[in-house]
Write a structure and sequence with these properties.
Strand content: 15-25%
Strand order of the largest sheet: 1-2-3-4-5
Number of domains: 1
Shape: elongated
Order of helices and strands: HEEEEEHH
Structural class: alpha+beta
Number of strands: 5
Helix content: 25-40%
Low-confidence stretches: none
């Protein structure tokens, strides 16, 4: 019996040692990779802004980030400026309603609230289907529209936007993300960034 207890104690010590060493290694790897991953994400966002902005700009919107709160919701806004004047707003938004989960999106709004352009910067949708939300053929359904209009829905929901064949859920998630961004746009235009 004493021998079994000794073996059990030794086994527990080995398992604990392996767990502790594994945890330390994973923590170290996380520390090494966290900053480069964040820098790569920031670079992607900064470069994507050029694609979604609704008007000319000569500032660096990424460096002028503004956080706007509306209730529990938090919005990240990047003002695009030409010679110091805001020409359009870029919103970072997301939706958790995608087929594969979360969609992260950058949306450019003109000053009148119309969608200038957008880009899905991160998703887990079905390859070849969900990624089509970034295709120009789908974008033409959304660019120039205002998210507060009743028709800003897919046709299956009574709107005017043609969903991507085989990716209706992804199409709805994108529209949801753009509508979320529009709420931040409204909050920013109201001139009150805290609630």
């Amino acid at each position: 019996m004493a021998r079994k207890n000794k073996e059990m104690t030794r086994l527990i010590k080995v398992i604990l040692t392996v767990a502790v060493v594994s945890g330390l290694v994973l923590s170290f790897i996380h520390l090494l990779t966290e900053k480069p991953i964040q820098e790569a994400q920031n670079k992607l966002i900064s470069e994507s802004m050029k694609e979604v902005v609704a008007a000319e700009f000569n500032n660096e919107p990424f460096k002028e980030k503004i956080i706007v709160k509306r209730g529990k919701a938090k919005y990240t806004i990047y003002p695009a400026r030409q010679d110091g004047y805001v020409t359009s707003l870029i919103m970072k938004t997301h939706s958790n309603k995608g087929y594969g989960g979360r969609l992260d999106v950058l949306v450019g709004f003109s000053l009148d609230g119309a969608v200038g352009n957008y880009k899905v910067i991160k998703h887990q949708e079905t390859p070849g289907l969900g990624s089509k939300v970034n295709d120009e053929s789908f974008k033409k359904n959304i660019i120039g529209k205002k998210p507060n209009e009743e028709s800003f829905k897919v046709r299956q929901d009574g709107g005017e936007i043609d969903a991507i064949t085989g990716a209706t859920i992804t199409s709805r998630a994108l529209i949801d993300a753009i509508q979320r961004a529009y709420q931040g746009y409204l909050k920013f235009n109201a001139g009150n960034d805290n609630e």
